[in-house]
Write a structure and sequence with these properties.
Helix content: 55-70%
Structural class: mainly alpha
Radius of gyration: 18 Å
Oligomer: single chain
Strand content: under 5%
Number of strands: 0
Distance between the termini: 9 Å
Order of helices and strands: HHHHHH
């Protein structure tokens, strides 16, 4: 990834931490939560590897087609899952963006794998940037507690185990929807940062 090395390492850390949290979410008792968390973990770790500065690690040329194949399979899985649950369309767009960036890296001249430039597809880059920027803004707005006229701001939850799910059972910290949204927000920010370098 081009740009300041410190910014690239911050992006690596953000994506790797998000991927690690998603792995922990895979321990959820809710099957749909586990399935979504698995795809998000793959995305987080994939983005972390792709964001490593070129001065530290430049993948071999054969790695990019392999990367595209892995995320192509993830895109097909998300497309299949979207038939029953439309929120998987976001996973489809994310996986497709990873395929696109992998193809751009594979097409780049040797030694310029992290330069992204010259891919010849600026319209697609712009469309993906608009999508992820909008997603980041929308998800960020959903994380802010709403306090309308005549309503007091909601008090913060007393602790990670205090949230209550269906049936009155307390939710584990891996099942809390606001943490899952924060995870997706982090990956959306990372995707915007990566697409800006294309």
């Amino acid at each position: 990834m081009p740009g300041p090395v410190s910014a690239a390492w911050l992006l690596v850390a953000l994506c790797a931490a998000t991927g690690a949290y998603c792995l922990l979410r895979m321990r959820s008792g809710v099957e749909e939560q586990r399935r979504a968390a698995g795809g998000e973990a793959l995305m987080g770790f994939g983005m972390a590897v792709m964001a490593v500065p070129a001065a530290v690690f430049t993948p071999p040329r054969w790695a990019w087609p392999l990367y595209a194949a892995v995320f192509g399979a993830a895109a097909l899985r998300a497309l299949w899952a979207a038939r029953a649950a439309p929120h998987h369309l976001h996973h489809l767009v994310g996986a497709a963006a990873m395929v696109y960036m992998s193809v751009a890296m594979a097409a780049a001249p040797p030694g310029a794998h992290h330069a992204h430039g010259g891919s010849g597809m600026p319209l697609l880059t712009g469309a993906l940037l608009l999508y992820f920027a909008g997603y980041v803004l929308l998800t960020g707005a959903r994380l802010v507690p709403a306090a309308g006229p005549g309503r007091a701001p909601s008090a913060p939850a007393p602790g990670p185990g205090a949230a209550v799910g269906a049936g009155g059972r307390p939710l584990g910290w891996g099942d809390r929807p606001e943490l899952a949204r924060a995870c997706r927000l982090s990956m959306g920010i990372g995707m915007v940062a990566m697409l800006l370098t294309m």
